[in-house]
Amino acid sequence: MTERLDGPAVPPAKIAGGPSAGPAETPRTRRRLGPSPAVAIAFLLPAALLLGVWVVYPIVYSIFRSLFDSSGSGFVGLGNYATIFSDGGMLVTIRNNLIWVVVAPIVVTTLGLIFAVLTERIRWSTAFKLIVFMPMAVSLMAAGVIFRLVYEEDPDKGLANAVLTTVHDTFSSSQGYPEARPRTGDQSPVNEQNGAVVTKQPVQAGTPVLIPIVGVKPQIMPSNAQPARAPSGGSAVSGTVWFDFTQGGGGQSGAVDPTEKGLPGMTVEAVKDGQVAGTATTAADGSFTFTGLPAGSYVVRLPQSNFQASYGGLTWLGPALITPAIIGAFVWVWAGFAMVLIAAGLAAIPRDALEAARIDGATEWQVFRRITVPLLSPVLLVVFVTMIINTLKVFDLVYIIAPASVQPQSNVVALEMWRVSFGGGNNQGLGSALAVFLLILVLPFMIMNIRRFRREDS
């Protein structure tokens, strides 16, 4: 037995340097944890083979194929790449991709940030998140079909123009009568001047004003039009604008017949010395009355706007708006994705930092700009870079939403790659060059994301 001093007795064999001390443990004698390298390789080999077949081989073959012509037998070197930057249509495609990369990620990230902040302040935040995130459950092809219908130019079919025309008609009472014209002739009281209809003689209060109109098509006649009422004069300048046509024949030209209808919604102006002194709008029976006009003589005029087609919205699928319209569909799909990621980052922000700033007197905008956004910057960058990668690969939305007549104006690199290779161009050399070009565009952003993930894990 060894002498006990301050602790339990220690056997001599355990004293370092003692005669019974065993050999020191080395890395070679330490027992290995986990499977052997052979077992790890056996499990990783199938995945590595699939990556080689589905990723590495297509990349290598595309690079090799891009150096040959459309038939694959003639070596052209970098000729296909030169075509990308010299062909006019290709330059339009690159310009569209640049617009996508600049606009779409910024809009998606901004909306995602706004939605994420709003969900912390509204009562039904879960329902709001569900509604905004719901488009993610829809494939891009289905989203393209939906927005192809939304962007229909006919307001009776397209939701976008239905909303625009409803808002426009709410603030504008003028009813358009395209192809309508005044009844002219020696007996007619009006003439046509520069597209407008004006009375031949100045009128005064008490003098009834008759403005006969012909050429009104039945399909544009308003449903609320009533039989025209002949003006009876009075103490104000008044009159009637009506459709001077009796169905089936008969009637008197230039006079209001019982079966003839008034033209509602027309803008009528009282003009004196070249200036508009008063404005009125025709009622359902075509009658109008100017109130508050000073005494004097006036020329009554129907401005040219009455004879233009009524507002029908915007041509969303036209050459000018097709790219912004498709970007709108992209934002509708991906805004929910950005909101969920940013909301998760927002939930991880320490609340004591926000409360301390508020106690120090910072406004909500200052807290958001100087504390919330800087702390969310890693998440915002991830969302932004992810959206850039998605915009570079966009294909479905452009192919489905854009009509064939405007696809050259809305084309992107991914769609052009498919079109020249398999969509009728049958030039797989140029298509392979476009695929390699697209890979070069995507690689920097992918590397940026991978490096950020590694820094966060370390």
UniProtKB/TrEMBL annotation:
Keywords: Cell membrane, Membrane, Transmembrane, Transmembrane helix, Transport. It is a multi-pass membrane protein. Belongs to the binding-protein-dependent transport system permease family. The lineage of its organism: Bacteria, Bacillati, Actinomycetota, Actinomycetes, Streptosporangiales. Residues 94-449 form the ABC transmembrane type-1 domain. This is ABC transporter permease subunit. Gene3D superfamilies: MetI-like. It comes from the Bacteria.
